[in-house]
Design goal:
The protein is flat. It has a single domain, classed as HAD superfamily/HAD-like (Rossmann fold). The protein contains 3 helices and 2 strands. A two-stranded parallel sheet has the order 1-2. The protein is of the alpha+beta class. The two termini are 21 Å apart. The model has no long low-confidence stretch (mean pLDDT 94). Helix 2 links the parallel strand 1 and strand 2.
């Protein structure tokens, strides 16, 4: 689960986006509980307003379902302003 790394410059990017009042949300097909733990281990969970992922019961596993869930959970409706990285 922790065989990951944070790319060089990502934390600076997250800080800059946060400083500029951007809403940062994670949408991943990984189980939400694991995504949360991974982001916390690398000390970057603090930059995200919301972390959305799949459920352990194998529901909400498709990327489009997770993205829709994340947007709805954060009341984000102005889709032309949304950027996925």
């Amino acid at each position: 689960m922790f065989e990951n790394l944070v790319y060089d410059g990502i934390e600076d990017l997250l800080k800059t986006l946060e400083y500029n009042n951007k809403i940062l949300v994670v949408a991943t097909s990984k189980p939400q509980v694991f995504a949360q733990q991974i982001l916390e281990k690398f000390d970057i969970a603090k930059y995200f307003t919301y972390i959305a992922g799949s459920n352990l019961d194998r529901t909400k596993v498709k990327k489009d379902e997770v993205i829709q869930y994340a947007l709805e959970s954060c009341n984000i409706t102005n889709l032309p302003k949304v950027i996925m990285i």
